[in-house]
## 1
Amino acid sequence: MDNYEFCVRWIAERKGGRKLTVLDYGCGAGQIVKGLRQQGIDAFGCDVFYDGGSYESAVDRELLGQVIFPMDANTNVIPFPDGTFDLVVSNQVMEHVPDLDRVLAEIHRVMKPGAQVLSLFPDRSVWREGHVGIPFLHWFPKRSAFRVHYAATLAALGLGYFRQGRSPMNWSREMCSWLDQWTHYRTLDDIHGAFARRFVAIGHIEEEWLGKRLEHRKSLVAIVPVAFRRFVVRKLAGLVFTASKP
């Protein structure tokens, strides 16, 4: 089970007999949107389709403009009226957002009172930079020359993603430049603070994520203390948590 499947299943399990209207914020190619609609859930998506990670060409033509909508990267205005959604999901999105407060305010606007948000993304403490596959690369200051050499050294040892046809140093320069421009890692305290300004009942469910991802090994997962499961997920994958609009 991947993150897309987890989100679809987690939301579908909470549907019950009620009608749910769901927004996937930063939907990419629309995997979660399509999965939810297959479950009979009224799901929509939006994305800025920015240059550093545009999936617009991968979106089904019949969905774009009808179910999945582009946003202006300068305003991040969600193209829906106030109080539209029962739930908003964002999967691996918030680490790309330069102004988290503005984005959360806009998400809050389109949620109904009592609606939930489900967020999956890494904070600064995660051990591996997941976009390029180099441990601790995001811990270095942006535009750090040492970071480029560090990543190139590990790439020469075989680490890193998307290295085909490039020397370790050229690959490292490109990847570090991409990280400088398109990622914004925050501390857990900063993330909690930003969400707490708009939402209540922030609850972490990393252990639930792990249980579903490893459900074929339930007995093994069950013997591991919850606190340790959360620690492992946060360090190896990232945060998984929910919050509610008052």
## 2
Amino acid sequence: MLGAMTWMYRKLIEASEVKGVTNGWQAARALGMRPEQAELALQNARKISKSRLLDGLRALQKADDRLKRGGEDSRAVMEFLVTELTSQMA
């Protein structure tokens, strides 16, 4: 699950950097995704600032590190991550 979330954040960051794309096919080529997914990524990337996406990616990395280290309740780590990703500060 964490890997999928990280992948999506990376694609959103890539989408935020894509310029001159006018349709899903061009977006798909630029992002290496299916056209429908690429179109959604472009739409969502326009709604979220790049700094917020980068903060989210850092939060995902911290959660991944905490889970790999072990010794912490994985559910608590994931709940904290969701809180970070959905807060106004993220």
## 3
Amino acid sequence: ASKEKKAKTYFLVGSDYIWPRTSMKIGRKHIEAHLTGSKVVGEEYYPLGHTNFNSLINKIKVAKPDCIFIAVVGGSNVAFYKQLKAAGVTAAKQFLLTISVTEDEVLGIGGENMEGYYASMKYFQSLDNPNNKAFVSAFKAKYGKDAVIGDVTQAGYLGPWLWKAAVEKAGSFDVDKIAAASAGIELKTAPEGYVKIHENHHLWSKARIGMAQKDGQFKVVAESGALIEPNPFPKGYQ
């Protein structure tokens, strides 16, 4: 947003619980400390299930941010994005980046209401690699040709395989032994590509930016060159 879209002003929006608030706290500190000349011009949170975003959209229109950074979750997304478009807030006018909308949510939102917006995820269904092609093919064969796969679905698929490897390494079903054995476990068959468990029990993985298409899929427009070390609570961002 800062380098390619020249964004200087940011409006942060999230659902009102710990994950969006923590994400936006980190985002705000990064914007203010590391993006020269940039500032946050608005920050709003709404209850889970909230569906009337007219007041928020009016605030966004008044603030005129270069970038709207969003962590709204669940059914609220359907109302929010439809109301954004109805109010004339589109990708042609403002840069919008979400960390909470996957292909699954777009089914309800409608690709026409998301087209041109961006999402930051580890995984997109459109990833062009042998692992993912086989995964998507098998998924559709089981759940139907119209089934879609988002980042959360793929993560759910990885979990049991990583757990299996940890159990085998530990030689036990004891939870503490499995946790102790998990660091360093690799999965080369992941649809997103090679991943590895860090000693903090999060995953080394790539970060990607996808641009929403009208058909509900995302076109990958940026990808980290190497695996990113997981650091969920960066020093200085608490």
